[in-house]
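Appendix C reproduces, verbatim, an entry submitted by the partner laboratory led by Prof. M.T., so that reviewers can inspect both the input and the predicted structure.
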Amino acid sequence: MDGEPMVRAEQVWKWFGSADVLRGVDLTVHPRQTLVLLGPRAAASPPCCAA
């Protein structure tokens, strides 16, 4: 993709208690790119992922 990314996250780690749910995830979203996040429980999505 051309140009600078609109969103970039590098080495994201998240855990709930002893459960690791993200381990070193990298994410880059460029202008005009569509991103869909899917998971088993949409109601448990963090607010940063809400539309």
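Residues 43 and 50 are 10 Å apart (CA to CA). Additional entries are available on request from the coordinating office.
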